[in-house]
């Protein structure tokens, strides 16, 4: 089974380097693309939007399913919106979508419009901008390393609204790997009609797996994250 891993904000495909070996040892074929505008701090991010990143993932899905097979999509944080857009574009080609401390972003919603931008760039904010829950388990050394590798996020990806049109996306099973929230909280959010979780109530098969840690389990709990992904893939 081909598994496509999409990183969250400020990260390249290399951010999955400690997770990928556990997936490969389980017999999965791993793909960790670095999406447009995120290869280097010197990239031109002026024309990059959420739709740009979704189109890149859809192109890879089409390439990998040319023989009629399916793929699994994994998205961390803001990457969850990217993979959900790809599910909407190709629902029949996705066996499962897995959201790592993320969820399927609803139609019309942006990933994060509040992040401060410098022109076309959204730099990694100061750590004081994140909550203690997000930073839990992330050591000082890891924070320093993360900042050293961080690439500015294209502002168009953070602020452009999700565009969904195919209700076939609701037939694709999903797994939420919850690291900063719980299964109980997901139920409360869905039950209260929270707009960020609006899609989940319509999805026919939803699993929640808890890994209590911070927002970046690929750094703080890579082995557990790999195991959770393998378990979700089945």
Structural features, described:
It is a single chain. The protein is an alpha/beta fold and about 230 residues long. The chain has one domain (about 1-234): Alpha/Beta hydrolase fold, catalytic domain (Rossmann fold). Helix content is about 30%, strand content about 15%. Strand 1 (about 1-5), helix 1 (about 20-25) and strand 2 form a beta-alpha-beta unit. It is globular and about 40 Å long. The relative contact order is 0.20. The mean pLDDT is about 95. It holds the Pfam family Abhydrolase_6.
Topology of this structure?
Layout: E1 2-6, H1 20-25, E2 29-31, H2 50-64, E3 71-76, H3 79-89, E4 94-100, E5 121-122, H4 132-135, H5 140-149, E6 153-154, H6 155-159, E7 174-178, H7 183-191, E8 206-210, H8 217-220, H9 222-233
Parallel strand pairs: 1-2, 1-3, 3-4, 4-7, 7-8
Antiparallel strand pairs: 5-6
Helix pairs in contact: 2-3
Task: Jot down its keywords.
globular, about 30% helix, single chain, two-stranded antiparallel sheet
CA distance, first residue to last residue: 10 Å
- Tally the helices: 9
Run of helices and strands: EHEHEHEEHHEHEHEHH
Note the overall shape: globular
**Tally of discrete structural domains:** 1
State the fourth-level CATH superfamily: Alpha/Beta hydrolase fold, catalytic domain
Low-pLDDT runs: none
**Number of strand segments:** 8
Mean pLDDT: 97
- CATH 2nd-level architecture: 3-Layer(aba) Sandwich
Report the sheet-strand fraction: 5-15%
Q: What is the helical fraction, as a range of percent? A: 25-40%
The secondary-structure class comes to alpha/beta
CATH class: Alpha Beta
Strand order of the largest sheet: 2-1-3-4-7-8
Radius of gyration: 16 Å
What's the story with the biggest beta sheet? Answer: 6 strands, parallel
CATH fold node name: Rossmann fold
């Amino acid at each position: 089974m081909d598994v496509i891993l999409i990183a969250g904000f400020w990260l390249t495909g290399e951010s999955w380097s400690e997770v990928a070996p556990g997936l490969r040892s389980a017999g999965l074929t791993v793909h960790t693309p670095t999406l447009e505008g995120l290869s280097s701090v010197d990239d031109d991010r002026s024309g990059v939007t959420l739709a740009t990143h979704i189109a890149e993932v859809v192109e890879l899905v089409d390439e990998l399913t040319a023989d009629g097979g399916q793929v699994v999509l994994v998205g961390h944080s803001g990457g969850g919106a990217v993979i959900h857009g790809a599910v909407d574009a190709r629902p029949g080609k996705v066996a499962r979508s897995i959201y790592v401390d993320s969820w399927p972003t609803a139609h019309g919603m942006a990933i994060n419009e509040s992040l401060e931008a410098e022109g076309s760039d959204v730099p990694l904010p100061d750590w004081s901008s994140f909550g203690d829950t997000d930073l839990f388990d992330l050591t000082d050394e890891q924070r320093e390393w993360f900042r050293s590798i961080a690439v500015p996020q294209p502002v168009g990806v953070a602020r452009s609204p999700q565009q969904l049109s195919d209700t076939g996306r609701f037939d694709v099973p999903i797994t939420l790997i919850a690291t900063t929230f719980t299964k109980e909280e997901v139920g409360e959010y869905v039950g209260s009609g929270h707009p960020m979780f609006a899609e989940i109530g319509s999805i026919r098969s939803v699993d929640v797996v808890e890994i209590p840690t911070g927002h970046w389990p690929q750094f703080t709990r890579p082995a557990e994250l790999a195991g959770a992904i393998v378990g979700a893939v089945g």
